[in-house]
From TrEMBL:
UniProt GO MF annotations: peptidyl-prolyl cis-trans isomerase activity
Pfam family, one: FKBP_C
Assigned EC number: 5.2.1.8
Family: Belongs to the FKBP-type PPIase family.
Protein name: peptidylprolyl isomerase
The species this protein was found in: Acanthamoeba castellanii (strain ATCC 30010 / Neff)
Keyword Transmembrane helix tagged: no
Amino acid sequence: MKIGFLLLALALLVSLVAAANMDKYNLRKGKEFLEKKALEEGVVALPSGLQYKVVTEGPAGGKSPSAADTVSVHYRGTLIDGTEFDSSYKRGQPAQFGVGQVIRGWTEALQLMSVGDKWELYIPSDLAYGPSGPGSIGPNQVLIFEVELLDIVGGSSAQPAVAGGKKARKSKKKQAKEEL
C-alpha cells in the first residue's frame, strides 16, 4: 500500500516537473519565433506584442468591427511547429462570434481589419491562452492564425475604414498605439 502511494506521488511529481519544463520551453521558443517574425518584410509588430501580416487587402472603404460587433470569419489556427489545431475551412463554413468574446489577440486584430481583409496573426501567449492552453494548445504557446474577415453580421458600431489602402492601415495602427 505504501509503495503504491509512493509510486503515485512520484508519478505526480514527474508530471508536474514536465509541465513546468514545457511551460518554460514554450515561452522561450515563442519569444524566439516572434523575434524572428518581427524582422520579416511585411510583418507589423504592435505595442501589445501582437504581430500581423496583411495577406490580402479588402476593398477600399470596407468597414471595421468594434469589440461590440459580431463577425463572420474563416480562419485556420496553427502552432509554431505547423500543427493545425482548428480550422473553419475544414468544417466547411465560416465561424461567427463576438469580437470581444475571443482571445485578446483576435479582439485587437479584428478591430484593425476591414471586411474583405485576410491577415496572418502571430499571437503571443499572453494575448492567447497563457499558461492554461486548452486541448492541443500547450501552456504559453504562441498561436498563428490565418483570418479572413468576411462580414460584420451583428452590432451597430462598425466603423467605415479610412479610404486609401495603406494610409488607412497606418491610421488604424496609429490609433491602436494611442489607445494602448
